[in-house]
């Protein structure tokens, strides 16, 4: 026996299986293992497609950090910091949005009530990391060729 709740253009379905599904402008499925929201990525939906230049240099200028959330009632009220004490005290890993904004502003946006805080779309960093790895692989191949040439010239 499924329960449905409609609000505006969205429907929350709570099926007997225990999985939740929200239908609307973007479909979201939540089960006991994950929260999954596929991002449309079809080529026919995109225009002005071009490669990411200097991806490795961009990645090298990004600083990864460990951090804990601030225990500030205003931040909790604004919905930008977890309500749960244990979650706030747990060590996290990430980046600082203001720093990232200097390198790849496309992945930084306003979040929270009134949009007065910055958030990071970590999933969008994937494309940058893919291109950076490809650049690194090319550099490694060149170095391997140089090493082979040095050894062949010694013989």
Q: What is the arithmetic mean of pLDDT?
A: 84
| Helix and strand pattern | EEEEEHEHHEHEEH
Give the low-confidence spans: none
How much of the sequence lies in strands comes to 15-25%
Strand tally? 9
Largest sheet: 5 strands, antiparallel
Helix content class: 25-40%
Cα Rg = 22 Å
Strand order of the largest sheet: 1-2-3-4-5
- The total of helices stands at 5
Distance between the termini: 77 Å
Sheet/helix structural class:
alpha+beta
Outline: elongated
Question: Can I get a quick summary?
Answer:
The chain is an alpha+beta fold and 155 residues long. 34% of the residues lie in helices and 21% in strands.
Give a structural overview.
The protein is 34% helix and 21% strand. The protein starts with a strand and ends with a helix. It has 155 residues and is of the alpha+beta class. The longest helix is centred in the C-terminal third of the chain and has 30 residues, at 125-154. It contains 5 helices and 9 strands; from the N terminus they run βββββαβααβαββα. It has helices at 55-60, 73-77, 85-89, 97-103, 125-154, and strands at residues 3-7, 10-14, 20-23, 28-30, 35-36, 65-67, 92-94, 108-111, 117-120. The strands form 3 sheets. A 5-stranded antiparallel sheet has the order 1-2-3-4-5, with no helix packed on it. The mean pLDDT is 84.
């Amino acid at each position: 026996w499924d329960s449905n709740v409609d609000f505006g253009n969205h429907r929350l379905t709570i099926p007997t299986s225990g999985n939740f599904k929200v239908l609307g402008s973007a479909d979201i499925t939540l089960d006991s293992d994950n929260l999954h929201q596929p991002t449309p990525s079809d080529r026919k939906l995109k225009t002005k497609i071009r490669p990411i230049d200097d991806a490795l240099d961009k990645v090298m200028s990004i600083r990864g950090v460990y951090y804990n959330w601030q225990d500030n009632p205003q931040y909790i009220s604004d919905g930008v910091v977890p309500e749960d004490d244990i979650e706030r005290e747990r060590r996290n890993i990430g980046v600082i949005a203001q720093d990232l904004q200097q390198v790849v502003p496309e992945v930084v946006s306003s979040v929270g009530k009134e949009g007065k805080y910055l958030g990071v779309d970590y999933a969008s960093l994937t494309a940058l990391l893919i291109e950076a790895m490809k650049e690194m692989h090319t550099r490694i191949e060149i170095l391997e060729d140089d090493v082979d040439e040095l050894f062949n010239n010694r013989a």
